[in-house]
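Before we proceed, please read the two lines closing this message. Tell me what the token row says about the fold.
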Amino acid sequence: GLLSYQDVLNAIEREFHLHEGEEREIIMKLWLKGQTMLSILQRYRHLLRDLNLDDDDFLGGLKV
């Protein structure tokens, strides 16, 4: 099901070792992590485009 605010905060505390009251630090960490994820996705998108795979034959394209 949906995570509660407390679930999310607990996960953030575990991953970043930050606690409630450190909102500025939490916001910075999450924003930077989001930016990192976006740049990784961009890189994969370019990689897939460079491979020039046919959408209808994805596995066939990988075998080349």
Q: What stands out?
A: The longest helix spans residues 23-51. The mean pLDDT is 87. The chain has one domain: 5-63. DSSP finds three helices and no strands in the chain.
